[in-house]
Amino acid sequence: MADEVPSLHAWAGGDDAFRRLIEAFYDRVEQDHRFDRLFPGGVSRDHRDHVVRWWIEVFGGADGYTRNLGGYPAMLAHHRGLQITAEERLAFATLMSLAADDAGLPADPEFRAAFMGYVEWGTRLALHNSAIDADVVEDAPVPHWGWGVAPPYQP
Ligand code: HEM
């Protein structure tokens, strides 16, 4: 029914969809020399699993990152001091868009707009927080992303 808008997590296909997304994303990162500095030696199993938990929580699934992995402050700590450049941020966002295709995420414009909205927001925050002496928000909840202005069209 039109007034029952599904979560982005449900629309994407649940936990498995985010597992496929993050695996596809870091597989691309490992093949891309623009990430040699940030991920020397590749992306570990633990890193992949933790980031999957993060994405599931943000998009409306279980709150595993908050419960078991340190929540927002832990995510923040991982980015501090990385000195992410504008080029690295854009490369990250672009590989995310490509990984969504690799993983077979829903391709409807509404879902992809919401998805890339989060990617744009998150990568810009990561860039900001990673600067030396950045003025950061030290604690906050893990964000919960929604559809924004274009929820799925359900007549
Ligand atoms: C939507 C944007 C982003 C999200 C959701 C995100 C998520 C995360 C999370 C959850 C972790 C911690 C994993 C853990 O708990 O073990 C992490 C670590 C990391 N992120 Fe991000 N990230 C984003 C943007 C970026 C960008 C733009 C870059 C660089 C171009 C980046 C580079 C890294 C690196 C290198 C680490 C590992 C640092 C370490 O080894 O401690 N991230 N990210």
Describe this structure in words.
Keywords: Heme, Iron, Metal-binding, Transport. This protein has a single domain, classed as Globins (Globin-like, Orthogonal Bundle), CATH 1.10.490. The N and C termini lie close together (8 Å). Helix content is 57%, strand content 0%. It is mostly helical. The site of protoporphyrin IX containing FE (HEM) has 20 residues, from helix 3, helix 5, helix 6 and helix 7.
Please tell me the CATH architecture by its name. Answer: Orthogonal Bundle
What kind of sheet is the major sheet? none
The name of the CATH superfamily reads: Globins
Q: Which CATH class applies here?
A: Mainly Alpha
| Helix count, DSSP H or I runs of 4 or more residues | 7
- The low-confidence runs, each spanning 5 or more residues with pLDDT under 50, are none
Number of strand elements: 0
Distance between the termini: 8 Å
Quick take:
By secondary structure, the protein is mainly α. It has helices at 8-12, 15-31, 45-58, 64-68, 71-79, 86-102, 109-129.
Entry keywords:
57% helix, single chain, binds protoporphyrin IX containing FE, heme, globular, iron, Globin/Proto, mainly alpha, Globin-like, 7 helices, 155 residues
Mind sketching the topology for me?
Elements: H1 8-12, H2 15-31, H3 45-58, H4 64-68, H5 71-79, H6 86-102, H7 109-129
Bound molecules: protoporphyrin IX containing FE.
Protein name: Group II truncated hemoglobin
Organism: Microlunatus ginsengisoli
Pfam families: Bac_globin (PF01152)
